[in-house]
Specification:
Elements: H1 4-16, H2 18-52, E1 60-65, E2 83-84, H3 85-94, E3 99-115, E4 118-127, H4 131-134, E5 138-142, H5 147-151, E6 156-160, H6 161-168, E7 177-180, E8 183-192, E9 202-206, H7 207-213, E10 219-220, E11 222-227, H8 233-254, E12 265-269, H9 270-313, H10 315-323, H11 328-361, H12 377-403, H13 407-412
Helix pairs in contact: 2-9, 2-11, 9-11, 9-12, 11-12
Membrane topology: Multi-pass membrane protein
Domain MacB-like periplasmic core: 21-239
Domain ABC3 transporter permease C-terminal: 291-407
Length: 414
């Protein structure tokens, strides 16, 4: 029930102790402000990690080879391991029921590309049709590589948006011809990539054409796969890890590589990286919660000390109240009321200021692993609950002490 006299007492106490109340409230507001900012940074890290994994398919498994570092079966270390079409076919045949997307890749760097009087050096990649989705690319014009291109060794090319802008200067490139080291390729598509311009400075051509035109035989630079969907992340991670380990083992057997060699065959599993990143993000967010809560506790201790001082100052008044029949619960309610009020008002100022700051500054923060730090409605509600609990905790012990004051001893207090 609303009690105007109690509110008058609270405001009178605050008026008499303006500086003390302000400093105490400032500590609580600072605690809430720090907590919200830290939680926003944690959310920004999660946003940044999610953005990083948008660049490619989220469950992509990439394989490439290097130089052996361990001698094996009479073969010396230092052998350069090269994959070929048979490696790709072996992986596909053995895991046909598990695979969703698949492609072999033959890459060339710094290939001179010419259109009319414009030219530049770009990365050329021979791929299969699934590679568009393995790279998470979106076509803005035309089409991608298809099976007919592969079967017929067609000289067609799909340009990254940056290549398109460099060579065609806004002109429609579809149907035009570009020269790759003097060999004409018909432009059939243009794509964009969430990875930005760095990923858009590439040109894709049919894998079979790349191997024939650039005298690669049946060689491949890398393999790329995704597995079918699973019911949950843990199952997907387990299936992905098992596939990666088996594929690595198969390639080592085929190319006579020591099982202990960690350099000859390299497997990159994005799900494993995602789990490590998200586990790290969870730990950081828990640490932020801990720091924020500890900061709030420091403020609560300040409020509690102030309430103890107030109880001490009002000992005689409390004794009089009890002498004329005031119940212990009413004394406790009086102290808790004031404690929760001071804590809540100060905390709301800290909360509102932090949300205002994030609304203004947050959208402009775009770093590699921190993007648009923010907090959602559930976090705001959580901080409100924390404020109420903190206020009650700050006032409980002073209120308990006040409720146990004996009227006779209180009246004797000086």
């Amino acid at each position: 029930m609303f009690n105007i006299e109690r509110w008058q007492e609270i405001f009178e106490t605050i008026r008499k102790n303006k500086l003390r109340t302000f400093l105490t409230g400032l500590s609580v507001a600072s605690g809430i402000f720090i907590l919200v900012i830290l939680l926003a940074i944690g959310q920004g890290m999660q946003n940044g990690i999610a953005k990083e994994f948008e660049n490619d398919a989220t469950n992509r498994i990439s394989v490439w080879t290097g130089i052996t570092s361990v001698g094996y079966k009479g073969l010396n270390p230092g052998r350069n391991i090269e994959m070929d079409n048979r490696d790709y076919e072996m992986a596909v045949a053995k895991n046909q029921d598990k695979l969703e997307l698949k492609s072999g890749v033959y890459s060339m760097w710094g290939v001179l590309t010419t259109y009319g009087n414009e030219n530049g050096s770009y990365r050329i990649e021979g791929v299969r049709g699934d590679y568009q989705f393995l790279e998470n690319e979106t076509l803005t014009a035309g089409r991608y590589i298809n099976q007919g291109d592969l079967n017929n060794f067609e000289k067609v090319a799909v340009l990254g948006n940056r290549v398109n802008l460099d060579l065609f200067k806004g002109k429609n490139p579809i149907g035009e011809y570009v020269e790759l080291t003097g060999i004409k390729f018909k432009v059939v598509g243009v794509y964009t990539d969430p990875g930005g311009e760095r990923e858009e400075t590439r040109i894709f051509i049919p894998l079979t054409t790349a191997q024939r035109v650039f005298n690669a035989g049946d060689k491949l630079r890398s393999l790329a796969f995704t597995l079918g969907k699973e019911d949950n992340f843990e199952k997907a991670l387990a299936a992905s890890t098992a596939f990666s380990e088996q594929l690595e083992a198969d390639l080592k057997v085929k190319h006579t590589i020591s099982p202990l060699d960690e350099r000859a065959v390299n497997v990159n599993n994005t799900l494993e990286h995602a789990k490590r990143f998200y586990d790290l993000d969870t730990m950081i967010r828990m640490f932020f919660w801990g720091v924020g809560i500890c900061t709030i506790i420091a403020g609560v201790v300040g409020v509690s000390n102030i309430m103890l001082i107030i109880v001490k100052e009002r000992t005689k008044e409390i004794g009089v109240r009890k002498a004329i029949g005031a119940q212990p619960w009413s004394i406790i309610g009086m102290i808790l009321h004031e404690s929760i009020f001071v804590t809540a008002i100060a905390g709301f100022f800290g909360l509102i200021f932090s949300l205002f700051l994030l609304e203004i500054v947050g959208p402009y923060i775009e770093m590699d692993f921190i993007r648009n730090p923010s907090v959602d409605f559930s976090v705001a509600i959580t901080t409100v609950i924390i404020l109420i609990v903190a206020g009650a905790a700050a006032g409980f012990f002073p209120a308990y002490r006040a409720a146990n004051i004996k009227p006779i001893e209180a009246l004797r207090d000086e």
